[in-house]
């Protein structure tokens, strides 16, 4: 039996609503740290968001991994650390050597390879592995922390199947209305 | 609307009504405000110039300096001491107001006010080293007012403010002078904080915090003079039995809620309301006029006259939702702007009274000391008119009120102790601290905050500390919490106090003629009256010949939110008192400032901040601190 295929979900940022407050970055960094805001600050932890708020022209919006269906990073990764799993492009951090091929091929600049939290640079390693938005997989959240943390609701988690369905239904409803109108006109003639 | 945001039983009755009526309350707005900005919570957001706003990345390789070059330590310190300046400004404006009223009385210009407590005025004069021998009371008042107003005027940077010099232990004063943090002029110190935190000025976190401590001590100075002169004008508190929580609102009376902070307004409203009782009855109110208090002005008239307390900070809106408050008269501080809108949902007249504190949608009666009586009359008339428009079908007064025995300033505490030992009233207290019957003293102060389920941290901590024989004092919204939850009763002492504390409270209460123990928590008054607790502590310290930082004395603001609390907490630390905060202060974005306040302060001042959000753990930590201090004294 064929598996039904769904596209990976994406975080959509509405540039009309984004204020550039960086709240999504803070929420993302904390969500992946497993600790609270004040504790992390008091411990002086190094935490990194997987999204970046950028300003271009007169709009601002966070940019993060698009969870590509044919992901260049996953194709290029020499160790197989980048792969399609559970409806997103995942990173198996323990398999990553930090070679940065994925960084070079990602068209969105959505990947960074730096150490974080308790990882320490030593003489032998810089302690960095590839990190990017994983839709908060493994953080036990229903919706990604950035979406939750946005004060202006500029971010949404989009399920493409539902998105397309609602578009199709909306257009069909408009066509149905036209059809009704034509039928009425025909009846009058 | 979940109810775990407050432990006030009245809320369970009134919040569903608010919801049904489409009235949003402080808790709804708190929920709508989630998530709150993390940068602001850490204190690393700077809005001090228009190149900004800037914020520091607390975790990664984002910006570590603002556009001007200020780092997280500088930004956090500047933000913090600006809050202290605002707190000090609030208290000191209140104090200035009261001092000017005393001056007016001494000049015979204010018919609405008298010196009701001449003995207190004489004590204040003696404290300020003013010679009163053969002086008329008016002349003493003039001299006290003059010495007090000097604290707002002196340009001699080396001379401490008169009040702080007269109040503290000698050793404490010297220690603070060595750090150059003793204020010489309240206004100048507040102005200096605003000046030094301007773009491109003081950027050294340590220097900034020391400037903030000076501001906090200016706040203390302003509080002392506000409290003591209010006592002279209106009478020092004496024990009185009254009640608290929204059940004190009466269905058959014209209910006037006095809300805000300054007794200059609430005292006169109480007095005029008594005279106009008959007019209210004529308007159909069988029970005449019923004054109830909200927040600190409520505490002021509660401890002086036994006026019942309807609500503390977070319940102020609920008082309006009862539909039975005919007028809410407000002056300054802690008045939610939402009260005007909620009042408009009912027949309630929300009346602002101060030129510099108006609220959109409220009506305004310009209250001046010179015309206080007619202003108050106009306010009470407005309330009676509003009463005629009250819709009885919309009245929902929760059936919750608790008895509260309140009114324990230094004088009434000493008077109660004097019944045990007239020669040396402090001796019984000191003996009982020394022999461990009283393990220590804790002062509960501060606000309510939506970060904590209303009143819960106060009540949890108090029960635990009392069980461990800690003598409890309270002011402000903390005192309001205890009054509302029935912890200011003799029954509470019987139920919650540890055995030895119970014995002491019973001995004092019985000999003072209360036919039973003192209440579990002693209500010392409003927020501005925190200076009363210091007075008691200084009296004990002087008697023992030690400084304040040696006493088994702690302070706690488990639900703090206002800038006034930031200032009070900071002077409490500066006076050598370990001070607990139960809400997270907005400083954790700077390791240096956090360390300064929680660690370094210990060596510099003897007092320090202890942050613990869990009330159970907080009580345990305070007990440890008390025991550590006892050990230091060898008791």
From TrEMBL, chain A:
<dbReference type="Pfam" id="PF13247">
    <property type="entry name" value="Fer4_11"/>
</dbReference>
<keyword id="KW-0408">Iron</keyword>
<keyword id="KW-0249">Electron transport</keyword>
<keyword id="KW-0004">4Fe-4S</keyword>
<keyword id="KW-0813">Transport</keyword>
<dbReference type="GO" id="GO:0051539">
    <property type="term" value="F:4 iron, 4 sulfur cluster binding"/>
</dbReference>
<dbReference type="InterPro" id="IPR017896">
    <property type="entry name" value="4Fe4S_Fe-S-bd"/>
</dbReference>
<feature type="domain" description="4Fe-4S ferredoxin-type">
    <location>
        <begin position="87"/>
        <end position="116"/>
    </location>
</feature>
<keyword id="KW-0411">Iron-sulfur</keyword>
<dbReference type="InterPro" id="IPR050294">
    <property type="entry name" value="RnfB_subfamily"/>
</dbReference>
<dbReference type="GO" id="GO:0046872">
    <property type="term" value="F:metal ion binding"/>
</dbReference>
<feature type="domain" description="4Fe-4S ferredoxin-type">
    <location>
        <begin position="9"/>
        <end position="28"/>
    </location>
</feature>
<keyword id="KW-0479">Metal-binding</keyword>
<protein>
    <submittedName>
        <fullName>Carbon monoxide dehydrogenase-associated iron-sulfur cluster-binding oxidoreductase CooF</fullName>
    </submittedName>
</protein>
<dbReference type="InterPro" id="IPR017900">
    <property type="entry name" value="4Fe4S_Fe_S_CS"/>
</dbReference>
Automatic annotation (TrEMBL), chain B:
<feature type="binding site">
    <location>
        <position position="68"/>
    </location>
    <ligand>
        <name>[4Fe-4S] cluster 2</name>
    </ligand>
</feature>
<protein>
    <recommendedName>
        <fullName>Carbon monoxide dehydrogenase</fullName>
        <ecNumber>1.2.7.4</ecNumber>
    </recommendedName>
</protein>
<feature type="binding site">
    <location>
        <position position="54"/>
    </location>
    <ligand>
        <name>[4Fe-4S] cluster 2</name>
    </ligand>
</feature>
<dbReference type="GO" id="GO:0050418">
    <property type="term" value="F:hydroxylamine reductase activity"/>
</dbReference>
<feature type="binding site">
    <location>
        <position position="46"/>
    </location>
    <ligand>
        <name>[4Fe-4S] cluster 2</name>
    </ligand>
</feature>
<keyword id="KW-0560">Oxidoreductase</keyword>
<keyword id="KW-0408">Iron</keyword>
<dbReference type="GO" id="GO:0004601">
    <property type="term" value="F:peroxidase activity"/>
</dbReference>
<feature type="binding site">
    <location>
        <position position="261"/>
    </location>
    <ligand>
        <name>[Ni-4Fe-4S] cluster</name>
    </ligand>
</feature>
<dbReference type="GO" id="GO:0016151">
    <property type="term" value="F:nickel cation binding"/>
</dbReference>
<dbReference type="GO" id="GO:0043885">
    <property type="term" value="F:anaerobic carbon-monoxide dehydrogenase activity"/>
</dbReference>
<feature type="binding site">
    <location>
        <position position="477"/>
    </location>
    <ligand>
        <name>[Ni-4Fe-4S] cluster</name>
    </ligand>
</feature>
<feature type="binding site">
    <location>
        <position position="334"/>
    </location>
    <ligand>
        <name>[Ni-4Fe-4S] cluster</name>
    </ligand>
</feature>
<feature type="binding site">
    <location>
        <position position="37"/>
    </location>
    <ligand>
        <name>[4Fe-4S] cluster 1</name>
    </ligand>
</feature>
<feature type="binding site">
    <location>
        <position position="49"/>
    </location>
    <ligand>
        <name>[4Fe-4S] cluster 2</name>
    </ligand>
</feature>
<feature type="binding site">
    <location>
        <position position="447"/>
    </location>
    <ligand>
        <name>[Ni-4Fe-4S] cluster</name>
    </ligand>
</feature>
<feature type="binding site">
    <location>
        <position position="45"/>
    </location>
    <ligand>
        <name>[4Fe-4S] cluster 1</name>
    </ligand>
</feature>
<dbReference type="InterPro" id="IPR016099">
    <property type="entry name" value="Prismane-like_a/b-sand"/>
</dbReference>
<keyword id="KW-0004">4Fe-4S</keyword>
<keyword id="KW-0479">Metal-binding</keyword>
<dbReference type="GO" id="GO:0042542">
    <property type="term" value="P:response to hydrogen peroxide"/>
</dbReference>
<dbReference type="InterPro" id="IPR010047">
    <property type="entry name" value="CODH"/>
</dbReference>
